[in-house]
Write a structure and sequence with these properties.
Blueprint (H helix, E strand, L loop, with lengths): L8 E2 L5 E2 L6 E2 L6 H10 L4 H16 L21 E2 L13 H9 L2 H8 L2 E6 L2 E7 L1 H4 L4 E4 H7 L1 H7 L10 H9 L4 E5 L9 E6 L6 E2 L2 E6 L4 E9 L7 E3 L2 E6 L4 E9 L4 E11 L4 E8 L4 E4 L2 E4 L5 E10 L5 E10 L5 E10 L4 E10 L6 E11 L5 E10 L4 E11 L2 H8 L5 H17 L4 H15 L5
Parallel strand pairs: 5-9, 8-11, 9-12, 10-13, 11-14, 12-15, 13-16, 14-16, 15-17, 16-18, 16-19, 17-20, 18-21, 19-21, 20-22, 21-23, 22-24, 23-25, 24-26
Antiparallel strand pairs: 1-2, 3-4, 5-6, 7-8
Helix pairs in contact: 1-2, 2-8, 6-7
Length: 467
């Protein structure tokens, strides 16, 4: 029985939907006219339209990749590539249409803004429908806009960086994103400004057969500090939806950027994402990547260490907890300069027939002496029906380096459960304690309120995995 009304409805499995009520919805499928219409509706400059069309040709010409998860059932022409939910963006939460506001209220987004965040953007389908930066950061020159507004209001700096970290021809899905991108965040932090609470963007797919292609660009000037959190959800449908984002980060000398992802897509989502950062002298880039949902995820946050003293840290959690679900994640670091360092720590949990894979790469170029890098991949298998894999790639072109890699696979053993249950702990609590201990090194890297939410989501994913 479905309880449906104007503000939304929930089915028996807890999936929350809102009836479609949109300003514009493109035709099903992908072609040049769709791309031209997206650009025209956004009133973009000619150079952006030309880049979109060039990227479309690149996407159509490239074959579907054959490595990694099987994408043969992904029908590119079975998605809507642009869906405009409102006539204009709102800066007051009270002005957001009620049916959309209800969705984000249920997700706790307005409360998060009031209590924990320096600024908030909320994207619904193809457009950012709400955006707000607190006055104290506006006064310091911080820019936090949706990406469409960033292009319109700051075209010179936008054009200087857009597509330079991840060019349109980097891979097939980066080309797709460049052709049809809409929404995302444009962040600029001036020299020396340190934002001590996170900015957050929340991405929601509501429509069936929807493609969401946000584009995020973060520029941290010299000596600045910024933390950015993105969250992702969607209701479950019998048909697939596609999420293919591109994130570009520039950390200029002495800057520090932390990028958190808490992904909880429904299991009908293909999540095919490209994320990369350039780190300059003495800068630090940290990716903290938490992947729970989607049917197929392919995501490998990357950092290119461009100048001496730059440092990268990639912490990844992946939970594959349903039959056929694939979490293919990891990280990549390229050491281009001497005296750079990196660390990749990957934790994965596989249960109920799910499959998790670590796929990563460390590359050291000639002349990048005195580099240090360490990779640690730990996998926890909950049952015999699940699977885990590791695909490390290490390319060292310099002798004077310190590189380490280790991997482990473990299972929740009957003896562990028996030991804890013999001391009065029930089986579900015992299992959760073991899982929480396994992921604790990564969860503690999250801000407190997000760490609590992450633990809760993992407990929900693990329900029924043992016993």
């Amino acid at each position: 029985m479905i309880d449906q009304n104007r503000q939304g409805y929930e089915d028996q499995s807890g999936n929350f939907f809102v009836p479609e009520n949109y300003v514009f919805k493109s035709d099903l499928g992908l072609n040049e006219q769709i791309v031209r219409s997206i650009s025209a509706k956004k009133n973009e400059p000619e150079w952006m339209l030309e880049l979109r069309l060039k990227a479309l040709r690149e996407f159509l010409a490239r074959p579907m990749q054959t490595w990694g998860p099987d994408l043969s059932k992904l029908d590119i022409n079975d998605f809507y590539y642009y869906l405009k939910p409102v006539d204009q963006q709102r800066s007051s939460w009270n002005d957001v249409p009620q049916e959309i506001k209800t969705t984000f209220d249920r997700l706790g987004v307005p409360e998060a803004e009031r209590n924990h965040l320096a600024g908030l953007g909320a994207q619904y389908e193809s457009e950012v429908i709400y955006h707000k930066l607190k006055d104290q950061w506006l006064a310091k020159g911080v820019i936090f806009l949706d990406t469409d507004s960033g292009l319109r209001d700051y075209e010179d700096v936008f054009r200087r960086y857009f597509g330079t970290i991840i060019p349109y021809n980097d891979n097939k899905f980066a080309a797709l994103n460049t052709a049809v991108w809409s929404g995302g965040s444009f962040v600029y932090v001036p020299k020396g400004v340190q934002i001590d609470v996170p900015l957050q963007a929340y991405f929601r797919i509501n429509a069936e057969k929807m493609g969401q292609f946000e584009r995020t660009l973060i520029i941290a000037e010299e000596g600045s500090l910024v933390s950015y959190v993105e969250g992702c959800t969607a209701p479950a449908y019998s048909s697939s939806s596609l999420h293919s984002a591109v994130v570009e980060i520039v950390a200029l000398p002495g800057a520090r950027v932390r990028y958190y992802t808490i992904q909880n897509w429904s299991k009908n989502i293909y999540n095919l994402v490209t994320k990369r950062a350039f780190a300059y002298r003495d800068s630090v880039v940290e990716w903290i990547d938490c992947n729970l949902g989607s049917g197929v995820t392919m995501k490998y946050p990357a950092v290119i260490l461009k100048e001496s003293g730059a440092r990268a840290e990639i912490l990844s959690i992946a939970v594959a907890s349903s039959p056929g679900q694939i979490q293919d994640s990891g990280g990549k670091v390229t050491h281009e300069a001497p005296n750079t360092s990196s660390r990749i720590i990957s934790k994965s949990i596989s249960s109920k027939g799910g499959r998790s894979s670590y796929r990563g790469a460390i590359k050291v170029l000639p002349g990048a002496v005195n580099c240090k890098s360490f990779v640690q991949c730990d996998a926890l298998l909950i049952d015999d029906a699940s699977r885990t894999d590791t695909y490390p790639y290490i390319d060292i072109q310099e002798a004077d380096v310190d590189i380490g890699h280790e991997a482990s696979v473990s299972k929740i053993g009957e003896d562990q459960l028996f030991y804890m249950m013999s001391r009065g702990i029930d089986s579900n609590t015992a299992r959760n304690l073991i899982v929480n201990g396994f992921i604790e090194p990564l969860v503690k890297a999250l801000p407190m309120e997000f760490a609590i939410e992450m633990n809760r989501l993992i407990e929900l994913e693990m329900e029924g995995s043992v016993g």
